[in-house]
Design goal:
Elements lengths: L1 H17 L13 H22 L8 H11 L2 H56 L11 H27 L2 H7 L5 H15 L1 H9 L15 H25 L9 H29 L7 H4 L1 H19 L8 H23 L1
Helix pairs in contact: 1-10, 1-12, 2-9, 2-10, 4-5, 4-7, 4-8, 4-9, 4-12, 5-12, 5-13, 8-9, 12-13
């Protein structure tokens, strides 16, 4: 029963993440780089900070306690967590481009699928390189690899559906669904985005022991590491966005006081929905036995559910409109495989 509760919590977070791009459509009179930076302040700084404060034990001052935790943490683990966060930030930038060329459904499917598989495997592999005494590779059991494999199969099936969509629609129909649709270009960017985005889970692996041990509620144990990863990602994204502000002469966006109220609300909403996935991941995995296949695969499960819900949004936004029944059947088959992959480790 606890496993079901954990999966439901992770699924709620996945649904919120997949919905996080909807409020962006309500942002007015701002360039991409401006709203991306502002929503990032909420998604990657303020909300993760609030989440990390929940890990501070009762009786200690919240912010001073968190800062002391960071200062006392092993410097190598601390900086590796931030470094992989910065690499993940690059994935976040290209992630947006993948949706530009493939749409929300297909773009998220390919990028998150790659992220799910590589993110799950790269963490133990790199930990084993730096800390061989931990024997981190032992967590990559048959059940874990089977779950990763099933996720990748589901993503591949959805990718086939995307290829069928590309082949069956006219240029006009493609543009009607996704304005800048370009399957080859979008595929390459989505794979790069997935590879770099997988660094998020690697960062979490390096920082998973940065907490207050038994004094921290298990539900909040990974939230300090999440803050460090998103901090690194914010640095990467902020540098790029400010560069784009300068290049595109869009500094004036910040002076448009008439739209600040509206845009702040929707950027906050987008940021909160996005952060919900990792807040939900921390809460959900606390219901799994530490070190169990379900625990190790929790990040992969989150990404798989993100893909499921992103395709639901893709259908709602009519990105698959005009496709043949066969294409929709292949898409549905891929979604079913992804849902089954979430339970597969427990069944084995």
């Amino acid at each position: 029963m606890e496993i079901i509760i954990g999966l439901v919590i992770i699924a709620i977070g996945a649904f919120c993440q997949s919905s996080s791009y909807v409020p962006i459509n309500k942002v007015r009179d701002w360039s991409w780089e401006t709203y991306w930076l502002v929503q990032g302040v909420f998604a990657w700084l303020l909300l993760p900070l609030l989440g990390a404060l929940l890990a501070v034990p009762a009786g200690e001052s919240s912010l001073p306690g968190l800062l002391k935790l960071m200062s006392d943490a092993p410097s190598f683990n601390l900086w590796m967590t931030i470094l992989f966060g910065m690499l993940w930030g690059i994935g976040g930038l290209t992630f947006g481009l993948s949706m530009r060329y493939l749409g929300v459904a297909l773009g998220q499917s390919i990028a998150l699928g790659t992220c799910a598989g590589l993110g799950t495997i790269m963490g133990p592999v790199l930990l084993n390189i730096f800390f061989p005494e931990l024997e981190a590779l032992k967590v990559l059991t048959f059940a874990v690899l089977l779950g990763v494999g099933a996720t990748l199969v589901g993503i591949a099936i959805i990718g086939i559906a995307g290829s069928m969509k590309s082949a069956s629609l006219s240029e006009e129909e493609k543009k009607a669904a996704v304005k800048d649709f370009n399957f080859p270009k979008g595929l390459a960017i989505a794979l790069l985005a997935g590879f770099m985005s997988g660094c998020f889970n690697v960062g979490i692996e390096f920082g998973k022991d940065i907490n207050f041990g038994d004094q921290t509620d298990p539900m909040f144990r990974t939230l300090p590491a999440t803050l460090l990863v998103t901090l690194g990602g914010f640095v990467t994204n902020a540098i790029y966005c400010l560069y784009q502000n300068r290049k595109n002469h869009t500094w004036s966006d910040y002076g448009k006081t008439a739209v600040w109220g509206n845009n702040l609300i929707f950027c906050l909403l987008a940021g909160a929905l996005w952060y919900s996935q990792f807040f939900g991941l921390s809460l959900g995995r606390s219901f799994f036995e530490t070190g169990s296949p379900m625990d190790i695969l929790s990040f992969c499960i989150l990404m798989a559910l993100n893909v499921v819900f992103s395709n639901v949004w893709g259908i709602i936004l009519k990105e698959w409109k005009g496709c043949s029944t066969k294409t929709i059947a292949v898409l549905t088959c891929g979604i079913i495989v992804l849902i089954v992959s979430c339970f597969l480790p427990q069944l084995t």
